[in-house]
Amino acid sequence: MYSINSIMDMLKWDKSRKIQRKGLRLAGKVRSVNVFLQPMDSEHNKNVWENCAKVLYEKPDETLSPYLIPLLEWLQDLTWPGAIIILERLGKYGDIEKLGFALNECVMRAYVTKDKMWLMHMSELLSYDRIIKNLQLSTIKMLKSFRVDCAE
């Protein structure tokens, strides 16, 4: 049996591919996913985020459901390790109503805090037509205004 710290050590980007694969396999068996949501301790931080995102990508929607807002927060900077993986996972999330609720909430947070970069990154989710159907009109308009490739 491996401790969560041992598993996280295996997920570090500077470990061999073999060790990282073992860490990913073991991490996939961990029931609690909150430890993989952008850890920020002295040993496990951005050095594990890419692999943490891979772990989260494989989790079923029911497991990720309570963590939709933290997953959307990962999109605050698409250069962060794992951010693109999280974006892709959110794009295939099945319960569009729950995702829409979380996205509406995060868009309002980003607007209030004037986080234009986060709004721009969340606007990438507009490329998924099924997501748009469950957003408030004000959210859609706001995200479209920050979308780089959006055609009106």
TrEMBL record:
It holds the Pfam family DUF5071. Residues 54-134 form the DUF5071 domain. InterPro entries: Cthe_2751_sf, DUF5071. It comes from the Bacteria. This is DUF5071 domain-containing protein. It comes from Wansuia hejianensis.
